[in-house]
Write the structure tokens for this entry.
Amino acid sequence: MGNLKMREERISTMEQTALRVSRVSILVNLLLSAAKLAAGILAGSGAMVSDAVHSASDVFSTIIVMVGIHLSGKAADRRHPYGHERMECVAAILLAAVLAVTGAKIGFDGLRRILSGDYENLAVPGALALAAAVFSVAVKEWMYWYTRFYAKKINSGALMADAWHHRSDSLSSVGAFVGILGARSGYPVMDSAASVVICLFILKAAYDVFRDAIDKMVDTACDPELEQELREFVLVQQGVEGIDELRTRTFGSRIYVDVDIIADGGITLREAHGIAERVHSGIERRFEQVKHIMVHVNPA
């Protein structure tokens, strides 16, 4: 009962952390997208306007993340006896879709301007657009590392997806900077070409987010490094003489563990149960990302 209460408190703390980070993300993205849109319009830069649209899409994606994290933190019920952790994966998949659509739209608009062949009538962006691109790179890189830090801390796939959304925005701003600089150097088409490059960065980020979410939904084993840590931890527990088998599977951002331990065949059932209980409780305390452990005892 104590372990269950401790897990519930831990989930609540994780949710609060994720929502706090998301609120910061929404505020920063609203201010940044407004600033980039104004700079793009005033400086006549299509690349900067595209970059502003990308930042604005971050607001919507962060709201998706917040909803997903909130739903994943709901307690298990009769219809969902294993909890709702996979809702976080659903949020990440929706986020990947938003990224993909945004990237495709930006790329299509840039490609259409390039294929028009009317380069002489393309406007040359003003210096304000260059300054906005540099400012955007700095802000979005900070947001990437800020969100990534807390995503790793609470092991949140949806929050990590949002961090990569910030990174894709940072890379798109780098592309916008190069395009605007090229346009100001006498090659107006570079501004439109930058939009196409930005599109590729965004689509790559969408693919990475989607693949990670799918991996977590199909019971993929956790990292070999973590499995080795679990193995080493179990082997040093009192009464454990070896491990016959250890299996793990991801469930959203959490992990299920099944382990067959070896114990002295001459001990009583009560003693064997005590060893299994020590392994079970020890793993729950040591590895916060573990949601459930099944321990089976085999005689030596």
In short: The chain is about 70% helix and 10% strand. The beta strands are 242-251, 254-263, 290-299. The mean pLDDT is 79.
